[in-house]
Design brief:
The chain is of the alpha+beta class. The chain has 3 helices and 8 strands.
Length: 145
């Protein structure tokens, strides 16, 4: 298994609308996707695009808001009411090979492989096995890079 590109940093927020305003007004972001619901994950999502140094797409900031009190993200915001960094996401060419790699190392995978916000398979690794950081592993979208 080889570490792929850092695709995005997930940022939990109590209000995507307020966070979008912040990224536009304070950070000067000009490319932000429309928010959409991911009910199977209990969140609303949108992406802030950042430019790469060579003019290509850079790393995205994924803004995530809970869809309700039963969302696991609601628990995160209960402990961090202002929001904050939730996870990092790395791309891999083959999600099943990556899953087998991490399982072979004894890393705890949180739930089954499922389809994530980019429409590709993902899984999460337990923070206690990843230096304290919730880590998302995502199959590189077809046609990307």
């Amino acid at each position: 298994m080889k570490l792929g590109r850092l695709n995005h940093i997930g940022v939990a927020t109590p209000s995507i609308a307020d966070s979008v305003a912040y990224y536009r007004e304070v950070m000067g972001a000009t490319s932000i996707t429309e928010a959409f619901d991911l009910p199977e994950q209990g969140v609303k999502v949108c992406f802030v695009d950042t430019p790469g140094h060579d003019g290509t797409a850079g790393t995205q900031v994924e803004l995530i808001e809970p869809l309700g009190p039963d969302s696991t993200l609601a628990g995160f915001l209960a402990k961090n009411p202002l929001g904050g960094q939730h996870h990092v996401c790395f791309e891999v060419p083959d999600i099943e090979a990556a899953r087998a790699h991490f399982e072979g190392l004894g890393k705890r995978i949180l739930g089954p492989t499922r389809i994530g916000a980019h429409g590709t398979p993902i899984f999460f690794l337990h923070p206690r096995d990843m230096m304290g950081q919730l880590t998302e592993i995502m199959e590189t979208p077809k046609g990307a890079h």
